[in-house]
Amino acid sequence: MIMQSTKANPTLQDGDADGPDDANGNDLGAGRGGDDTQLLTRTKPKVKKPNLYRVLLLNDDFTPMEFVVEVLARFFQMDLERATKVMLHVHQNGVGECGVYTYEVAETKVTLVMDFAKQNQHPLQCVMEKK
Ligand code: TYC
Fold it and tell me: What is the β-pairing status of strands 53-58 and 125-130?
């Protein structure tokens, strides 16, 4: 028994408790079956890990160290000790991680940092990369 392709609506997926479903969540027909009143009942918790992205700062020769520390404190909630360590790591290694976030959060952080650097006429570069 094929019910309805449920790909587009996660609330409808795998809602039948009567037996095996195929890879698309369609009821394969074993068990009680045929009970459309159960279509909206999720039986298996569906847990998906989000894709994660590192936000990185790049070193340059011109941005003042104190400005980078300010960026790390302001946009990445680091205390001064942590921010100073990360800034020095970037200064010495060329690149360093500010944090790991979901796509939208990482993208927002990059935009905020780049806008803040531009406003202050510093060439600081902030990028994201998939983990
Ligand atoms: N290299 C810079 C300086 O000597 C400091 C700096 C650190 C710049 C980290 C950017 O992401 C950076 N003033």
Answer: antiparallel
